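Annotators were shown the component list below and the corresponding predicted structure, then asked to write short factual statements about the assembly.
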Amino acid sequence: MSNKKSECPICDAELILADDTLQSELVECSDCGTELEVVSTSPVELQEAPQTEEDWGE
Ligand SMILES: [Zn+2]
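Structure shown to annotators:
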C-alpha cells in the first residue's frame, strides 16, 4: 500500500523500501552504495550489512 521509509545509517540519505521488504533482507543505499541489512520492518531499521564472502545475489 505504502512504501516504507528509512534512513541510511552511513550517510543519512532517505531510503524508500518496498512495502513487502522483509526482515534481514539486504538493500543497497542508492546514495553511498553501502549494503544494508533490514533489522526491523516496523519501523524500518537498517544497519550496515556484515561483509561476507557468500553471494546473496542469486
Ligand atoms: Zn548511504
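Statements collected:
1. The chain has one domain: 4-48.
2. The chain has a mean pLDDT of 89.
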